[in-house]
């Protein structure tokens, strides 16, 4: 049984990996084989049973990912990466919003709730429609046995973290700090094991959007055990006729508002894929699934602003100065990508590409993917417009502010603006635009 499954892994990778990334196949194969071999015999048997019903290599790989919570989360992270083949990304997107494998009776239900139908499943939890008396609600439940599976998988990844670097080094591939990166991803999944944290994020989000009637987050019922929310009815954003009109609003509330805030912490919804954005019956943008968020401090956002402005100017020395403060290690050539995610190209950020920037890039991938499906190419324009509007709103305060004060929402002092502007004008004529 084990030999058959491991042989299939090799076949999947040969079929799925694009030619441009074929050099990574040996390391990926070693990592997946090591991972599966380290699982308990009972789990390997369950995986094989699911494999036998799959019809293609892509389906077998997504089946494996659904059987392993950490791989499920990894698949969601990769689903919007444009460097992968389009058909493979399409398959991975199934991991973003699929129906639960387990039956409703396999879950532990609060006595007040009567489960009605399954709605969706993520890497750690499933969502069911329920009745609370006569009120329609949804309940987010941890998948049966998921905590035990995660504990087993966390131990495997801890062991793999060090070996991945050795394998990459031996094959002449880029070497990252895989141990730290995997440990950080593990912490994200651990957060999802505690529904109270998502409940808190929903309450904070409701407070944040209370003055924005065009945005809705589900109301929570903290008096009930577990995570119970109101049931929202509507249409997925991409299927709605107002999708093009609401996309700039989505960019604002998911990206520019949390980035260009004067507050200490900018809180980003970490899974803004199309399945988590709906248009409700009143035409409001409904944001679902607040199980994972990215928190970027004002200091990190300010450094990133300076680094990206330096990259836009093509100033390698300036770029290195700010980028190394973000990574804590040497960086490469400043990025010149034509997209926002291109500015966070890991090849430019060195071996210590930090997790918070990886997750910010994931958010950008989601938004760029939605933009592509809408047939638009204005995400960067929307971001620059919002930044410009915030700068104009700051002008009265800037007139009275000290030259070097950078407490503004755009994170730039008056002196910073003068400096970046002058350096751009003084750029040698033969520098790339």
Tell me the structural class: alpha+beta
Count of folded domains: 3
Q: What proportion of the residues form beta strands (DSSP E)?
A: 5-15%
Series of H and E elements: HHHHHHEEEHHHEEEHEEEEHHHHHH
> Outline, from the CA principal axes?
globular
Distance between the termini: 57 Å
The major sheet is characterized as: 4 strands, antiparallel
If you average the pLDDT, what whole number results? 86
Care to count the β-strands? 10
Helix proportion = 40-55%
Name the strands of the widest sheet in spatial order: 1-2-3-5
User: Poorly predicted ranges (pLDDT <50, ≥5 residues)?
Assistant: 429-433
Radius of gyration: 23 Å
* Count, helices: 16
Descriptive tags:
433 residues; alpha+beta; Phosphorylase Kinase, domain 1; 3 domains; 4-stranded antiparallel sheet; 10 strands; globular
């Amino acid at each position: 049984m084990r030999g058959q499954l491991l042989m299939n892994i090799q076949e999947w990778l040969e079929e799925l990996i694009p030619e441009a990334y074929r050099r990574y196949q040996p390391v990926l194969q070693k990592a997946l084989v090591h991972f599966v071999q380290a699982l308990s015999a009972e789990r390997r048997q369950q995986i094989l049973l699911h494999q036998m019903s799959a019809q293609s290599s892509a389906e077998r790989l997504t089946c494996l990912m659904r059987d392993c919570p950490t791989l499920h989360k990894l698949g969601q992270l990769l689903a919007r990466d444009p460097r992968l083949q389009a058909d493979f990304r399409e398959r991975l997107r199934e991991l973003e919003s699929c129906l639960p494998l387990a039956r409703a009776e396999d879950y532990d239900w609060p006595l007040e709730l009567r489960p009605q139908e399954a709605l969706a499943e993520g890497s750690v939890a499933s969502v069911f429609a329920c009745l609370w008396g006569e009120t329609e609600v949804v309940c987010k439940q941890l998948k049966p046995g998921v905590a035990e599976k995660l504990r087993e998988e966390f131990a495997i990844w801890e062991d793999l973290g060090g070996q991945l670097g050795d394998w990459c080094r031996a094959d002449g591939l880029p070497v990252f700090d895989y141990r730290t990166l995997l440990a950080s991803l593990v912490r994200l999944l651990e957060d999802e094991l505690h529904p109270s944290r998502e409940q808190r994020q929903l309450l904070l989000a409701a407070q944040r959007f209370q003055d924005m009637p065009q945005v809705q987050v589900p109301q929570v019922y903290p008096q009930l055990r577990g995570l119970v929310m109101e049931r929202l009815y509507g249409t997925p954003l991409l299927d709605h006729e107002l999708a093009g009109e609401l996309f700039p609003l989505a960019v604002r509330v998911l990206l520019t508002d949390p980035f260009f805030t004067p507050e200490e912490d900018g809180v980003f919804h970490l899974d803004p894929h199309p399945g988590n954005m709906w248009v409700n019956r009143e035409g409001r943008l409904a944001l679902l699934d607040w199980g994972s968020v990215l928190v970027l401090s004002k200091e990190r956002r300010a450094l990133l602003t300076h680094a990206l402005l330096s990259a836009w100017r093509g100033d390698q020395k300036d770029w290195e100065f700010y980028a190394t403060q973000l990574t804590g290690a040497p960086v490469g050539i400043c990025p010149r990508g034509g997209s926002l995610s291109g500015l966070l190209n890991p090849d430019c950020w060195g071996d210590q590409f930090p997790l918070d920037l990886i997750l910010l890039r994931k958010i950008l991938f989601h938004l760029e993917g939605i933009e592509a499906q809408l047939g638009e190419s204005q995400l960067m324009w929307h971001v620059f417009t919002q930044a410009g509007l915030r700068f104009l709103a700051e002008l009265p305060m800037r007139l009275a502010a000290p030259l070097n004060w950078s407490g503004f929402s755009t994170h730039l002092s008056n002196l910073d603006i003068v400096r970046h502007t002058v350096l751009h004008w003084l750029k040698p004529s033969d520098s790339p635009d």
